[in-house]
Amino acid sequence: MRARLALLVAAVSVLIVIAFLVPLALLLRTAAVDRATVRATADAQSLAPVVGTADPETVRLTVEQLAAESGRPVSVFLPDGDVLGSHSPRTPAVELAGRGQSLTAESADGREVVIAVQGRPDGTAVIRTVVPYAEMTAGVGRAWLVLALLGVLLVLIGLAVADRLARNLVRPIDELSAVSHRLANAELEARVQPAGPAELREVGGALNHLAGRIQELLVQEREQVADLSHRLRTPLTALRLEAESLRDPQDAARITDAVDGLERAVTGLIRQARWRTPTAGAASTDAVAAVTDRVAFWSVLAEDTGRAVELDLAPGPLPVAVPADELAAAVDALLGNVFAHTPDGTAFAVRLAPGGDHVMLTVADEGPGIAADSVRRGASQAGSTGLGLDIARRAAQASGGRLELGERPGGGAEVILRLGRATGTPEPQTRASGSPVR
């Protein structure tokens, strides 16, 4: 904010300086041009008595003397066509002055001054001189430089004054920002010492009140989470007992695994709700093992619905920077969409391959395709929750990757999940056969 205040003051100062100095600079230039023109006109008019009465030789000597003293070309056009002094063509201004009208005109060499001299017995003579651009702008550049330095000095003084005034305003704001960042990092004991203008003191008090309220809400939330944990584990225990009572051992093992996976998912959700998140950057999962496990789980449903599954996995391990449970949820979300949004019998393929700094997981099917905005959280074209693709997207972004939607060349949807590679040792992969996320 301090920099923005300085920028604002600088912008205002520059505008004020420009508003005053630019017209002054133009006025100086106009005055210099007028001064040079008046001086040249006076020199030319001083020849008028000689040109009107003297013989050509006297006029020639006087013209040459004036040209040498002034440093400007001076020409006299006599009525008989002779040109005395500097040789120059008869310009339109000279032709007009020959009719008895004195004037000034712009030319390629500078400002042309022509004076008509009447009274000669043979007609009207014309005195012509040219004021070069260098003479008209002499001293203007130096004056502009002085004005520019003065303007810069005024802007710097304004910035210095504004900086001292803004310092007292910005210091309390910096303290507010520091405390807010500490609160964001779960340092809920952080408080701000209200200071500065009345508005900032009020904001500081509000921030302290907010921090206290957050502590109260977190205590209530933890109590509710603890109660939720107890209430969910009771029906899960009942489900496990029911599964163990099944006569078919395979069905019993499959349902028990599903209940275990659901219990792990509930435990993970409770842990996240209690702010017990793992250290950032510590997660590393073998993508080959995770994808193999989830495809094996979905293959049972694929066989029941008549779907052909094509699995193409690169040799492992391929560690990615995603926790095992989040990667499993992302794969379940992609495969669950295939089953939810394509008719029975639709084949799909799962491919996993390294690609530079990423590991690319591709799920393609032969269904009707997928809308480009389906990755938006809550967006669904088939009446579902619209969270599946967003779960996969967030898992990819957390690892430094991204989610890409496309279409297969022969029709159907193709979803590519680019997962960032991990450098640590992958977490041991446990069989997570719980209910998929849809």
Give your account of this protein's structure:
With 438 residues, this protein is of the alpha+beta class. It has three domains: 2-140, 2-Layer Sandwich (Beta-Lactamase); 198-273, no CATH class; 285-420, 2-Layer Sandwich (Heat Shock Protein 90), CATH 3.30.565. The protein is 55% helix and 16% strand. It contains eleven helices and twelve strands. The chain has helices at 2-46, 48-53, 56-70, 92-97, 133-136, 140-184, 198-244, 249-273, 287-304, 324-341, 388-398, and strands at residues 74-77, 83-85, 103-106, 110-120, 123-132, 285-286, 309-313, 319-320, 348-355, 358-365, 402-407, 413-420. The strands form three sheets. It has a five-stranded antiparallel sheet. A hairpin with a 2-residue loop joins strand 9 and strand 10. Helix 1 runs antiparallel to helix 6, helix 6 crosses helix 7 and helix 10 packs antiparallel against helix 11 (388-398). The longest helix has 47 residues, at 198-244. It is elongated, with a radius of gyration of 45 Å. Residues 418-438 are annotated as: Disordered. The chain crosses the membrane at residues 7-28, 143-162. Its main location: membrane. Keywords: ATP-binding, Cell membrane, Kinase, Membrane, Nucleotide-binding, Phosphoprotein, Transferase, Transmembrane, Transmembrane helix, Two-component regulatory system. It is an enzyme of class 2 (transferase).
